[in-house]
Design brief:
two-stranded antiparallel sheet, about 10% strand
Length: about 375
């Protein structure tokens, strides 16, 4: 044997990861990199691992995609950035807020939550974006667009308070702020969540204002507010909240979910969401030279069924006499608590821990999150 010693390079060893037709040369993952992010995370898919090893973001800072079983759609897989948003306390509080508020006093099975609805809406939004991406490549939809729309769908109801829509009239009565809405509070919470999860690490160059615009929707006469993004992407703001026709994934999910939970699957008169998704196209609108979401003529009856179901749900569920009476009684209890010595101790958005009345907590992002603990 030769007495010559074998030398090694001082730099870290490198390995080549192959993905389809291409490969990525990257540092060998350390033991710290191989550690799972949490006990409930799924194994990292190949595509996500490729993105992480390419240096897009530190491996240990990113959440992995997760598969959730939904009562309406079955297995639903959400991207890592949506999982990160779900792990925040601002979103998790939706698990304690019932979708139909006082209707659960009339329909015992109407116990589904805003969290369920948000996950279902995100699933449908991702289906729509991926369908358009596959069928109309000329739209130039990229990963950033897909994740922004999915995140908007997941967080579109994050501003709801206890008992859902009943909360807003209560806040207006006790604070005198007639402009208060769950959309306004939701926009503030979305910015707070995006800061907490370090959104830039998942979607480089993203603008939180674009996610908020996807949540609120854009009317036809509204100007395009984003200089960093071409107005050709205006149709993305129609997916979660369609100001033109009202045919959006938010409505699809809550009508299907609410009708099944209250009237039962056999008598709810639901519609086939998969058929609607397959019929979506982006076409040039008559008023602007930019695309807008439209549907093939073959699903005209399905679309008509949506509006018919919405009318029936308002008559039989949403405007049910007993549900309205129950919500009025709960509102009176909240008003009495607001005027009494009842206080919520929480850390406000300014970082100080103090006591809040119910009305004060409704307008403070920090105190708003734990409100459900005191009102459930």
């Amino acid at each position: 044997m030769s007495g010559r010693r074998r030398t090694t390079q001082s730099s870290a060893p490198r390995c080549t990861q192959s993905f389809g037709d291409s490969s990525i040369e990257s540092p060998t993952p350390t033991n710290d990199d191989r550690q799972p992010l949490s006990q409930t995370d799924n194994r990292t898919p190949v595509v996500e691992r490729r993105r992480r090893l390419s240096g897009a973001a530190p491996l240990h800072n990113l959440r992995k995609p997760k598969t959730i079983h939904d009562r309406v759609y079955g297995a639903v897989t959400l991207p890592g950035v949506l999982v990160a948003a779900m792990d925040t306390s601002e979103f998790q509080r939706l698990d304690k807020i019932r979708q139909l508020g006082g209707s659960s006093f009339v329909f015992p099975s109407a116990t589904h939550t805003r969290k369920e609805h948000s996950v279902g809406t995100a699933h449908l939004a991702l289906l729509v974006v991926r369908h358009l991406r596959n069928t109309q490549p000329e739209l130039a939809i990229d990963d950033s667009d897909e994740l922004c729309v999915g995140l908007a769908a997941l967080l579109h109801d994050v501003g709801h308070g206890p008992y859902s829509h009943m909360w807003e009239p209560f806040v207006r009565r006790c604070t005198g702020d007639q402009n208060y809405s769950h959309e306004g509070m939701g926009a503030r919470l979305v910015r707070r969540i995006c800061t907490q999860i370090k959104l830039e690490e998942y979607i480089p160059g993203v603008k939180v204002e674009f996610i908020c615009a996807c949540i609120e929707g854009l009317a036809d006469d509204a100007d395009w507010p984003f200089s960093h993004l071409s107005e050709d992407k205006r149709f993305l703001c129609d997916i979660v909240s369609n100001k033109r026709s009202g045919l959006d994934v938010d409505k699809w999910d809550y009508l299907n979910r609410d009708s099944v939970s209250t009237l039962g699957e056999s008598s709810s008169g639901g519609f086939d969401v998969t058929r609607l998704v397959s019929a979506i196209r982006v076409v040039k609108g008559p008023q602007r030279c930019v695309g807008e979401v439209a549907f093939e003529e073959k699903v005209a009856l399905d679309l008509n069924r949506i509006f018919k179901l919405r009318s029936e749900m308002h008559q039989m569920v949403y405007q049910h006499r007993v549900a309205i009476v129950a919500e009025a009684m709960i509102t009176d209890a909240f008003l009495a608590a607001h005027d009494s010595a009842f206080r919520i101790t929480a850390t406000g958005e300014d970082g100080t821990c103090r006591e809040f009345t119910l009305g004060e907590a409704a307008s403070d992002c920090g105190a708003f999150t734990p409100v459900w603990k005191s009102t459930s």
